[in-house]
Specification:
There is one protein chain. The chain is α/β, with parallel strands linked by helices and 395 residues long. It is 41% helix and 12% strand. The protein has 13 helices and 12 strands. β5, α8 and β6 form a beta-alpha-beta unit. The longest helix has 24 residues. It binds pyridoxal-5'-phosphate. Pyridoxal-5'-phosphate binds next to α5. The site of pyridoxal-5'-phosphate has 13 residues, from α5.
Length: 395
């Protein structure tokens, strides 16, 4: 028997925190389809539209004019002022551009800042399940504990104050809401949010509200959580440019919060990021000042596609709730007799359509698949046809 050489033996050098999170179930599917010809992907959650040229030009012009330096840690003051005006115009909520807004590297960074600035080890965060894939890692890496709060298709995947309260303990520090929802497309009604606001006030909780899909709401007007009476003081509001302005690759978003929480987040942001990319901030400034007509067009087109996919899924006999926001359909595939994982794998294999198994988004996603309809209409029609063929063969 050869003895282990102490010089070549290696401990696992990565932390228990990292071991405590799993790789995204979505990434697995991206890798599978990377080299697959003729595959239609309903997997990736991003607009198919290219960023409007006007925004891109603004970035180029700024760079050519010498704007190649760091900005303020908080972000360009003009951009913060524009974000402040935008939120006031849409929702009547007022944030001070000087000390209540930070421009971030997308909502992704904003989530990391919020969780790290708020949570101590063992603090619990109530999160409606199914949830966006980045919520668990952000909470776990911050030392917190995600407490899933089940939601169901029968109740349109909305969460109620009493669902949340049932799972609250004395360790509960925050509620993390993401509406309109990725992956379900659920949107909340103002009256339900008002009850959650009461709960937050009663139990002295912070609400982290991820409103990245706020503009993509079909029929139900979006309620900004911070605009509810008394809520600005206990809300960390996350928003961004990725979805409403087709700017995923620019990596720019924002976080708004009361000045003391913002300063806590700033302590992290200034060391890990310094400032969001300067060219992207100029593109974002153009978008928020002059992008409304593009957003309107995107929303109109997404809405048409939403109706197309929902009626297609219903026609093929899959139970589907009507998504009221974002750009995802989340049908149940239980009637096919397959698990969500089997359904996604076989659909990819047999019909070359990529969808994401719902269990990637938490226990309550099990038995569903997520289909992103931010896909050009001809491709979406073709995808619906292929899925229909696949489902018919299973019957
Ligand atoms: N939050 C939700 C719910 C998302 O779906 C996404 C992206 O898919 C993000 C945050 C991250 O967005 P960003 O591109 O602004 O980092």
């Amino acid at each position: 028997m050869t003895e282990a050489n102490p010089h070549t033996q290696k401990r696992r050098h990565f932390s228990q925190k990292v071991q405590g999170i799993s790789a995204s179930g979505i990434r697995h599917f991206f890798e599978l389809i990377a080299n697959m010809d003729g595959c239609i992907s309903l997997g990736v959650g991003e607009p198919d539209f290219v960023t409007p040229e006007r925004f891109t030009r603004a970035a180029f012009n700024a760079v050519l004019a010498g704007e190649t330096h760091y900005t303020s840690n908080y972000g360009l003051i003009e951009l913060r002022q524009a974000i402040s005006a935008h939120l006031e115009r849409l929702y009547g909520v007022r944030y001070d551009a000087r000390n209540e807004i930070v421009v971030t590297i997308g909502v992704s960074e904003a989530l990391l800042l919020a969780t790290h600035a708020l949570l101590d080890p063992g603090d619990e965060v109530l999160v409606p399940d199914p949830y966006y894939v980045a919520y668990p890692p952000c909470i776990v890496l911050a030392g917190g504990k995600l407490v899933p709060v089940p939601t169901t298709m029968e109740r349109d995947f909305r969460v109620s104050a009493s669902d949340l309260e049932q799972r609250a303990t004395e360790r509960t520090k925050a509620i993390l809401l993401g509406y309109p929802s990725n992956p379900t497309g659920a949107q909340m009604r103002r009256e339900d949010l008002a009850e959650i606001a009461d709960l937050a006030a009663r139990r002295d909780l912070v609400v982290i509200s991820d409103e990245i899909y706020d503009r993509l709401s079909y029929g139900l007007p979006h309620t900004c959580f911070a605009s509810l009476p008394g809520m600005k003081e206990r809300t960390v509001l996350l928003g961004g440019f990725s979805k409403a302005y087709a700017m995923t690759g620019w990596r720019v978003g924002w976080v708004c919060a009361p000045a003391d929480i913002l300063e806590a987040m700033m302590k992290i942001h200034q060391y890990i990021v310094m400032s969001a990319p300067t060219p992207s901030q100029y593109a974002a400034l153009e978008a928020i000042r002059h992008g409304e007509e593009y957003t309107q067009k995107f929303v109109e087109e997404f809405d048409a596609r939403r109706r197309l996919i929902v009626s297609g899924l219903k026609d093929m006999g899959l139970t589907t709730f009507e998504p009221k926001g974002a750009f995802y359909a989340f049908p149940s595939v239980r009637s096919t007799g397959l698990t969500d994982m089997e359904f996604a794998e076989r659909l990819l294999d047999e019909e070359k359509v990529a969808v994401i198994p719902g269990s990637a988004f938490g226990e309550c996603g099990r038995g569903h698949v997520r289909m992103c309809y931010a896909t050009p209409r001809p491709l979406l029609e073709e995808a619906v046809e292929r899925i229909g063929r696949f489902v018919a063969r299973l019957q």
